[in-house]
Structure formats: C-alpha cells, structure tokens
Amino acid sequence: MSKFEFPKSIASRPVWGTLEVRPGEHHLIIAEAEGAQAVLDIATPGMMAVTHIIYIPRHTDHSARLRALNPAQFYEGPSYAAALQRIRRVLEDAHMGLQVYLTGTEGMMGQAMNEAMAVGIPHTAIQTEHRGAIGRRMQCVHCKGITEDVEVDPFVCAHCGLNLFVRDHYSRRLAAYQGVRVDAEDHGNVPEPRGIYE
Amino acid sequence: MSGAEKIQVKVTEITPLNDLVTRFRFERVDGGQLPTFSGGAHTVVEMHDGPVTRLNPYSLMSDPFDQSSYTISVRRDDEGRGGSLFMHRQVNLGDEMTISYPVNLFSLDLRARKHLFLAGGIGITPFLAQIKQLDVLHGQWELHYACRNHALASYADDLTGRYPNETRLYYDDQNQAIDLKNLLSGQPLGTHVYVCGPKGMIDWVRNTAATEGWPADCIHYEEFLAPKPGKPFEVRLAQSDKVVHVGENESLLEAIEREGVDAPYLCRGGACGQCETVVLDHAGNFVHRDHWLTDEEKAAGKKIMPCVSRFEGKTLVLDR
C-alpha cells in the first residue's frame, strides 16, 4: 500500500500534497520507505543532475532504483535520526532557489519540515506527499513524551504508560498529534483499541 | 468616514533634494506625538487643489520610532494627474494638511534571516524606514539601488556614507545594471527579497525570482498605481440611488466621493483590496488596473476596484 486517502478532518490536521517538479537551482529530496515511489514518479534527468536525495529505507528496498536515477548526490541512512545531521548540514549550506521535497510518513515529513522552516523556508514552499505507513507521531499532553508510529486508538504512552486518545489536533512545532488520556474521568475504563482510520 | 483615521499636521520643513524630488516634514498641529509605524508604511495625504480633492499615498521614510515628525519624499511627475505638482508648487512651510494614520502594505517579514532590498528611483523611500527599523532590530540586510544618474539618486550619498558595506548603487547613465540572477542565486536560505520601483523593475524581479525557485512568500513588492486618466463614463450607485459622471482625469473612487458617498478605501493604489465593490449590472468593458482581483475575478466582471480601474461602455451599476 503506497497511497492512502486520509479522511477529511479539522483545520489543524495537515493536508499533504502531491510532489511536482518546480523550477529551482537545487533540489533536496528527503524520502522515507515507500516515499521512494513518489520520487520515481516525478524524477527527470534534468532535475536529478542538481538533486540531493536523502533516503531512509525502513525495511523497504528501493535504494537501487533511486540510485539508478543518477542524482547528483545520494545518501542512505538507517533512520531519520541518523540522517538528521546530514539534513541540517545540507540546509545550512544551501542557497535560495533550493526546492525541498518530503515524502514518506507523516512523522518524518513533519520533523523534516521543521528543519527546513528553521533555516527560513516558508512552510508553504515545502512540498510533501504522504506514502507508506499511516502511523502517527504522537505527543502525550501529560508527560510530553513522543510515541512514534502509533496505528491504534487509544494507545499506551511509551513514556508514562497512560492510555491516550488519538486526536487530529496537530502541532507543526512538535511535528506531532496530540494524545490525551482517554480514561481521565473514569480510570481503567479504556475502550478496545482500533485502527485510527477504522 | 472611510480610510484610516486622520491626523492634522503642519508642514515644518520643505527640502528640495534634486531636480525632481522634494522632502516634506510633518508635525502634529496640536504638538502631540505621532503614532509609531513599521517600515514600509505609507500615509495618505489630502490635497485640496481648488475644486479637486486628491488623496495620494506616500511612503513614510522617517525613523519609524520617531514620534515627533513624519517625512515623505515626493517625486515631481509632470505627466501625472497633478498630485505631485501640487505638493511641489502649492504646499508652503507652515501649511496645515490632513494625513492618514500609517498603513503598511509592504512590511518586513521578520521571519526572514536576511532582507534583500531592490530599489528603483523614488522607490527607495520605504526602504529608508525599513533600514532604520532593522538598525534597531540588528537585522541583516543589503540594498541594491538603481537610479538614472548620480544627481537624481536621492539619499544615495547618505546611504553609502552610513552603510558602505550594505549599499550598492547602479547608475543608468554609466550602463550599470543589477546582476539579478547572480544576486538572487547567491542569497542564503531564508532571504526575503523586497522590490519597490517602476513597474518594469517589479515585474523583472518577481519573474526572475520565481524562475530561480524563490518561494512566493519570500518575494515582496510595492507598486502604487496612480489612477490613469481615461474616457469619461457614467456609473449608477444602487444603494445611494445616484448617477455619477466620472470625468477624464478623476478616478471612479474620486467621483463617488465627490458626490458625497462614503466609499471604503485605504491605499488608493490598487493594492490593498479595501475598496472592492460589487458590480450589479454592466454593459461594456472593464478596464481593470489593480493588483488585487485575480484574473478570473477580472474576467467575471462581478467586482471592480474603483481606486484605479475604469469602465468603457453604456451601463455600469455598482452596489454602493
């Protein structure tokens, strides 16, 4: 499953787009797992000649196909955290005219978007396309701990162990959705977990 | 009354800078303080020229934190509708005038890591206030200022004297031109570009920046359109139940105001959107000249910006 249609929700929920090649001096693509498909969909030789691809496979293997696009630079990292130093360095050295493309899970796109915004790129200018896993990056409003790749609702906070309700309320600053204790009023009364979009 | 709130001021200084540009200083008649403003703001100056009332916007160029006075610089336009000629020829030291509170349609984006200013001729004025604002904020900026020649380069010597490392001048008569493509591609991420000058320069900068991959949110421009003369036409104002004749040398907005109808406005230059008016009926062609309506809205013929746009045809009915 590469593409998923997220149901319409509140204004706080991010709406991810579809990548398109835009004019630019340089292109930075950060792709995670199935996001490689979105890159393969838009790549042209002209674009690839001035493109730096940072790829985080996460149990998929599209590396060979991405390398075959012959980008100016290609880096494969085992995780977002491992790739982060490189992402920061690339953004720090970049000039205006850089186009940023993010594709993969919501959690990766949200965090990478923060890095791009931190160097002054308006969030409206950063392209995104969701591909692959639909798990969410959640912040527990009680202990502030982040739980990655949450697929069910409610879920157990990986930090404080509370049972949290998955909200659509999103923080661009944290790149996370809000998780609120589901049994705050009636301790122990926790509904059966179901898939977030079921 | 429409428009921003008004301030009664006295002209306390008139300083000719060169053949075309004169600077005016305004202080409050009641001796009080003027509001602070943000760099890039303009004020609308009321001019009572015989039977004609003109309301022209001018960029404030003084220090935005200086509440004792405002200054504007007016370039004489011998071909224009007469506002700048009135300022140059009929305004005297000590005259009382009415100006509006500052309105800013060209403010700095303070999220920018660097501000790149491109000025053409008298387009330098908003940048003078923005530079003073960035002095206080310790912002990073550079200015590229193109003029016809050294004699007409208002404030160029002040700028190069005070900011020698940030200011670069280009003179047409020495065949110097901004190397725009190179200048843009060398800017660090997070730079915002601001352009104020003739229409050709604004279009050139906007188009080049877009082609070079600059985000639209990082490109800022200010172009005040003076209403252009055109064929006279008649307009019916449905709410006020009036038929107004719009003369060759007045704008639709001015004609509406002349008849005592209070119509909203702010910039009077086709930029701010405040005067947007619904068209109830028409038979003829619109002459849309504003920057506000989208191309689709202009083609649909349901809205008009009376500050700069006109009409050619038989019937025009506005919801005003």
UniProtKB/TrEMBL annotation, chain A:
Superkingdom to which the source organism belongs: Bacteria
Coiled-coil annotated residue ranges, if any: none
Gene Ontology terms, MF aspect: 2 iron, 2 sulfur cluster binding; metal ion binding; oxidoreductase activity
Keyword terms: 2Fe-2S, Flavoprotein, Iron, Iron-sulfur, Metal-binding, Oxidoreductase
Dimethylamine monooxygenase subunit DmmA-like C-terminal domain mapped to chain residues: 137-180
Keyword Ribosomal protein: no
A UniProt-annotated Pfam family: DmmA-like_C
Domain Dimethylamine monooxygenase subunit DmmA-like N-terminal: 9-126
InterPro entries: DmmA-like_C, DmmA-like_N
Record's protein name: Uncharacterized protein
Native species: Ruegeria meonggei
Upper lineage: Bacteria, Pseudomonadati, Pseudomonadota, Alphaproteobacteria, Rhodobacterales
Automatic annotation (TrEMBL), chain B:
Keyword match Iron-sulfur: yes
Its EC number(s): 1.14.12.7
Enzyme class of the recorded protein, top EC level: oxidoreductase
Keyword Oxidoreductase: yes
Residue ranges occupied by any 2Fe-2S ferredoxin-type domain in the UniProt entry: 233-320
Keyword vocabulary terms for this entry: 2Fe-2S, Dioxygenase, Flavoprotein, FMN, Iron, Iron-sulfur, Metal-binding, Oxidoreductase
GO molecular function terms noted in the UniProt entry: 2 iron, 2 sulfur cluster binding; metal ion binding; phthalate 4,5-dioxygenase activity
Domain of life: Bacteria
Family matches, as PROSITE patterns: 2FE2S_FER_1, 2FE2S_FER_2, FAD_FR
Required cofactor names: FMN
Cross-referenced InterPro entries: 2Fe-2S_ferredoxin-like_sf (IPR036010), 2Fe-2S_ferredoxin-type (IPR001041), 2Fe2S_fd_BS (IPR006058), Beta-grasp_dom_sf (IPR012675), DmmA-like_N (IPR054582), FAD-bd_FR_type (IPR017927), FNR_nucleotide-bd (IPR039261), MRET (IPR050415)
Domain FAD-binding FR-type, chain residue ranges per copy: 4-109
PANTHER family: CARNITINE MONOOXYGENASE REDUCTASE SUBUNIT, NADH OXIDOREDUCTASE HCR
Name of the protein: Phthalate 4,5-dioxygenase oxygenase reductase subunit
Organism of this sequence: Ruegeria meonggei
